[in-house]
Amino acid sequence: MKDEVQTREDRVANLKGMGCSRKRVEDARFTQGKGNYVDDVKLPGMLHGDFVRSPYGHARIKSIDTSAALALDGVVAVLTAEDLAPLNLHWMPTLAGDKQMVLADGKVLFQGQEVAFVVARDRYVAADAVELVEVDYEDLPVIVNPHESLQSDVVLREDLAGQTSGAHGPRKHHNHIFTWEVGDKEGTEQVMENADVVVEQSMYYHRTHPCPLETCGSVASMDKVNGKLTVYGTFQAPHVVRTVASLLSGIEEHNIRVISPDIGGGFGNKVGVYPGYVCSIVASIVTGKPVKWVEDRMENLMSTAFARDYHMTGKISATKDGKITGLDCHVIADHGAFDACADPTKFPAGFMNICTGSYDIPVAHLAVDGVYTNKAPGGVSYRCSFRVTEAVYLIERMIEVLAIELNMDAAELRRINFIKKEQFPYTSALGWEYDSGDYHTAWDKALEAVDYKGLRAEQAERVAAFKRGETRSLMGIGLTFFTEIVGAGPVKNCDILGMGMFDSCEIRIHPTGSAIARLGTISQGQGHATTFAQILASEIGLPADSITIEEGDTDTAPYGLGTYGSRSTPVAGAATAMAGRKIRAKAQMIAAYLLEVHDDDVEFDVDRFVVKGAPERFKTMKDIAYAAYNQAIPGIEPGLEAVSYYDPPNMTYPFGAYICVMDIDVDTGVPDIRKFYALDDCGTRINPMIIEGQIHGGLTEALAVSLGQEIAYDDMGNVKTGTLMDFFLPTAWEVPNYETDHTVTPSPHHPIGAKGVGESPHVGGVPCFSNAVQDAFRPFGNRHTNMPHDHWRIWKTANDLGLHG
Amino acid sequence: MIPAPFDYHRPDSLEGVMSLIREHGDEARVMAGGHSLIPMMKLRMAEVPHLIDLQAIDSLRGIRIDGDKITLGAMVTQHELIDHAELATKAPILREAALQIADPQVRYMGTVGGNVANGDPGNDMPGLMQCLDAQFTLHGPEGTRTVAARDFYEAAYMTARTDEEVLTEVTFAATGGGYAYEKQKRKIGDYATAAAAVLISKSGGQVSAASVAMTNLSDVPVFSQGAADALVGTDCGDAAVDAAVAAALAEIDPTEDNRGPVAFKRHVAGIIIARTIRGAFNRA
Q1: Chain A contact for B188, CB < 8 A?
Q2: A721 to chain B: nearest residue by CA?
Q3: Rounded mean pLDDT of chain A?
Q4: Residue A173: how many CB atoms within 10 A of its CB?
Q5: Please, what are the domains in chain B?
Q6: A805 falls in which pLDDT band (50, 70, 90)?
Q7: Distance from CA of A353 to the nearest CA of B (A)
Q8: Are residues A95 and A119 in the same domain?
Q9: Would you say A346 and A367 are in contact if contact means Cβ atoms under 8 Å apart?
Q10: pLDDT band at residue A345, thresholds of 50, 70 and 90?
């Protein structure tokens, strides 16, 4: 179509910019099986690594005999802690300021722990050799319960013996890691003492696992000729990995190239640094050959980062008519054998202090005690910003429990306590500044959409019919209103091991009007190549289809802190918009020169600069790009490039209203999700189709966690849920139809007003499914039961309430 | 998840299988669909130096229906059971049960023979075959013999089949009357928390014949003659169903696992059995 016949609407559509459900550019390769994942990386002469792992939860290692393994044809090396010690790599620092064994040093502290690393000519020989390594263990007492751990004489971390202080302050016991306290303890106590109503509720948010489709892995290649180390890996934060690898190995950062190729889901599992990465690097340095390590599903579930495992006690006070006056929360946090939580360094319990939720609570106090046990380390944020799922679960359960205590409708209780629209920006009792929100509007829209009153009437009829013996099915209505805190974050208070949590974008416009942009983030399925191009299209007026987005190669991408905690759009998305605006500023000067007017006499319009008041006089961005490279313009350097490093002034606070309707078979404990309505407000919407996909995915992972997905240990420290037979990963069959909806409350401080959305559905979904189960039993006296609500636990709830006659 | 080294054999006749078994003895195992054996090999819980794949043996394939007599070759897949129009008329419980086994990908490979011969208490076909009063044909060095499904299972993974024998086919009579297969499971691909197979014939509003069997509620499938007896001659009212359930529950011995403790399983088993009986009666 010729430019002159295009309407302005056509030109906007042609850009496929923000607000457009542009199809995902990634899907062509993924749907054809042509992605390039770590396990697809095959380098000449590449060797394969595999781990000998501990079968015990806690044991002393008396000896390791590698001779039979070394004698096997094709085995190149077997590394143990003894081999790594001279390099000081038998232990490594964790992201949480603790240290972690790379290979077992004298003892093992959890089942599945890495004991020795076999390197062989092929993957099969490596697996055979693992069987031939003989390790002599001596059993030690196993502790899988953190409450017990704090009472026990057994010292789990002998390496820390005598250290009364850790990375986050004093340690109260040899198995204690830290106490993190925020808020006004005394003030909260006072309010509680004088309150009309105070309710206390303990709840266990069970240990689970992000379980991405692709497990973790790496390929390290040390080129001894030029001294360069290249590491391909499943890294959600490739630049951080490069810096950490440099600090650990002493190799200068310019000699390390870290590449995250396609990543098959991360959900927090791929934020941390794992022994497998370190061992593949060391093995490559030792052998001079590339070394690949890729864990299998059982290893992934047993040893790489878990999520949650929070024993929480909430105390909430209110007036008799339901106005909340205070919140107190205490957490015993089970961190496993090493504190390897992936949180901003100053936040050892992440953003758990968002636990006042969406409510105007005048005073609050939070204390978290981190504890060592004989379980795998981790503590990552599984599809949520740091510990936000735990925080939202706590407050959304406390609201339900308070509603029971007050004999109030839980929807109304929420409404009367919401932070009001005019209170934003709102400073919470635990210190966060919520950027924007309109909770009442969202809540009313949601309640109306599902006919909340009608549902409650139907539920009451069902209860009556149940009591008359006419049905054995109960109906639960799960409510949740959540506020997320994402986009970490401002460098003034957010860093990881000292690295500020800004992010970046670098744009290069090509002479013919197409472009490449590189970011410090890395997509793991979020569709960055699609959406970041849309942001740019709207900012610089070139079609999204003409913009390549590239991430994940530290040699080419600008430094950034990676993708997790829904930070890509809030931080790197902002950097992208800002870099785009720099391009536009230069383009304006070029356009003015070409149009022979003053800079201030041209204005940007979709894909061009036009002379103010004379729309027929314009230069398209394509014309400008060509001129930038091919025309001598006085006072302006050739080229059209820009880079922006964005340090966000604040977090963003997406929110949403979710309602779930569930029928529960009282006799078998089988739940049937009849309806799930999800209203999300993520501020400005970049690609509605991708948002919807994100919401479906996050809700499905929420369904999994609330209805059955867990990493369970027996008393001996054995993982009971180490395969997908027992670890619940829902299929299309188990997933209900989701109804999505939205309101739009832009972030006032973000350049395009976007807040991030990938994790909201998980954060809001978990309490919503759980509340539905619990609500079904509320008329029979249920106050709280712990997740996961699998069939037998639901059945047990019914049984404990005497519903089986 | 990488198996120990093994040799792979793919004979094209039963005689070929027999000669490989003779040659390798304990070191050889036959494999039908492989959905039980291969994971065990990958976990190195089963070491099979000589794996004999039965895929190439045509005589083990096919569904044959001769009047009221139905014969399933050992290598008939669950997908074929679902897809067979005449079988769906002559013995519809097979289709109903097969649809509740795993997922389509597994059902394309998973076989009747493998499912019944492995002796895994979690498998659905053994209980179903006991309900149908099927006969299993075993081919061994001494020739061919048949064993009733109801006599075949001794303990978990222990059956009347000797190591030298191959299960070649399953035969049973077409069913009249009502049928139902109900299974409670945590998710697609899971074994049953409790499952039951019931066949009921009705005459003049009363149960004239019944067969009740259960899956994954003991270390073997459980056929309950007592449950059937409690139903025959009744109108399948609440009292009769209660009596049948009581009889069936007396014969099960579930164990605690991640699906739940014994008390839960017994309770759910009772519910599932009652629902299956009522379902079959209503269709009769």
Answers
A1: yes
A2: B258
A3: 96
A4: 15
A5: 7-53 (3.30.43.10), 58-173 (3.30.465.10), 192-283 (3.30.390.50)
A6: confident
A7: 34
A8: yes
A9: no
A10: confident
Looking at the structure, do residues A631 and A662 belong to the same domain, yes or no? Answer: no
- B19: distance to nearest CA of chain A, Å? 29
Each residue's pLDDT tens digit, A378-422: 999 999 999 999 999 999 999 999 999 999 999 999 999 999 999
Are the beta carbons of A287 and A547 closer than 8 angstroms?
Answer: no
Q: Could you tell me if A67 and A119 are in contact, meaning their C-beta atoms sit under 8 angstroms apart?
A: no
Q: Name residue, tokens 């003895």.
A: B25
Residue A339 and residue A220 share a domain: no
Strands (E) across A143-246 are located at 165-166, 169-170, 176-183, 197-208, 217-223, 228-233
- Report the residue of chain A nearest B264, measured CA to CA: A792
Q: Is residue A194 part of a domain?
A: no
Among residues A605, A625, A646, the one where a domain terminates is A646
Residue A1: pLDDT band with limits 50, 70, 90: very low
Q: Which one of the listed residues A383, A414, A518, A567 is annotated catalytic?
A: A383
Q: How far is A537 from chain B (nearest CA, A)?
A: 42
Helices (H), A484-601: 528-540, 574-595
Q: Which of these three, A286, A303, A320, is where a domain ends? A: A303
One domain for residues A435 and A510: no
A639, part of any domain: yes
Specify whether A429 is located in the same domain as A552: no
Write out pLDDT tens, residues A256-298: 999 999 999 999 999 989 999 999 999 999 999 999 999 999 9
CA gap A132, A500 in Å, rounded: 45
Does A165 fall in a domain?
no
User: Cα-flanking dihedrals φ and ψ of residue A49, to 5°?
Assistant: -110, 155
**Which structural domain range is residue A7 located in?**
3-35+503-646
Of B179, B183, B173, B242, nearest to B210 (Cα)?
A: B179
Domain count of chain A? Answer: 3
Residue A175 domain flag: no
Residue B6 has a CB neighbour count (10 Å cut-off) of 15
**Measured between CB atoms, which of A296, A730, A795 is closest to B187?**
A730
Q: Does B187 touch chain A (CB under 8 A)?
A: yes
pLDDT at A237 over 90: yes
Amino acid letter, residue A325: T
